[in-house]
Amino acid sequence: MPRSSIRVCSTLPPRSCAGRGPLRFGFNGKTVGDKELMGANNLIDAAFGMKLEETLTCDETAVMAAGAAGDDAMDVDAAAATAGVVEPPVKMYDTARKLVCNIQGGADASSQVNVNHIAEGIELSLNGKVEKRSDVLGRDAVWSKKTRIARLPPILTVQFGRFYWKETPDSQDHAGVKCKVMKPVAFSGTLDVYDFCTEEVQKVLKKARDKALAEEEDRINRKLRGEDAKKETGDGEAMEIDDKAEEAAAAGGGGDDEEDEALKAALAMSVEEELAPVGPGLPENFQGQYELFAVVTHKGRDADGGHYMAWVRADKPEGSPEVEKIADSDETNDDWYVFDDDEVSPCKTEDVLKLKGGGDWHMSYLNFYRCKK
Prior knowledge:
Blueprint: E1 8-11, E2 24-27, E3 30-32, H1 34-37, H2 43-48, E4 50-58, H3 59-65, H4 75-83, E5 90-96, E6 99-101, H5 118-126, E7 127-134, E8 139-151, E9 155-160, E10 163-166, E11 177-180, E12 190-192, H6 199-225, H7 235-252, H8 255-272, E13 289-299, E14 307-313, E15 335-340, E16 343-348, H9 349-352, E17 363-371
Parallel strand pairs: 6-9
Antiparallel strand pairs: 1-2, 2-3, 4-5, 4-8, 7-8, 9-17, 10-11, 12-13, 13-14, 13-17, 14-15, 15-16
């Protein structure tokens, strides 16, 4: 049977101690302290919770300050435009335990946004327009809302906005009806959240990405120079490859040596620099990528009925052979299990990726991702 690769536990200090003290959490045998918890004060928020930073910017005062106010009919608006006053942005913080993938273009015929991929739906849900009072204008105005993740979780949940309420003004009772969006929205085995994070979190993730890229370039350069040839060939062949590498280096001059030294210096600097935590229980040098490990699907066209099933990725034992990839993709075709009430059946990654919707078959409603090592 499948097992989650993330082990989470919490401990409380003895009640006999003076004061209860902070909670301590453990992820995969590693104790997480207050610095990494970043405000998460319970097990659920530590495992699933995200700290969201919401920034509101007044569109109307920004346009006026730029000299784009065309009509000065309102005295307050004209004064604000003349003075070049801009409403200061408003920042708020909140905790959420899931991201939402908004689906538009199928249910809303008037929508100008057509979502085809999970990343597009998440981006749509994190941005928007709201109406809020402006102290500069002295009235309600239109504000732009931009939400970004300020603390990342070890387990990320994404909910697809499949169900919505549709108004029926032409009906006899004028009551609305519950509807389901059948539109297909694709997803892959890996979800990159870099673009959904705050600038502070992005800086930390970028350092980890740059370090991984430098290490990969160093590995390729060493392979091209033949330094790893002894592991794959005999001694005589390795010496021949080394001789060819030395001849190529001599013919190319000292430019490569300078590049190698710069690469080594960058690697040494990245190793010495300790990256700031961006969330509890995340692996070292986390790059902001999550892997899909569980899915909850819904089958049926009725929002009040239908059938739910769970799909869970099976853990691969250590030392297991490399899994073949799905044709024309970089996705590995791993083993999964599908739980249909009391019936459990095996399946593959290619079966799970087909749960994107578009018909009467099961479609994804909840996707669960775990931080990728």
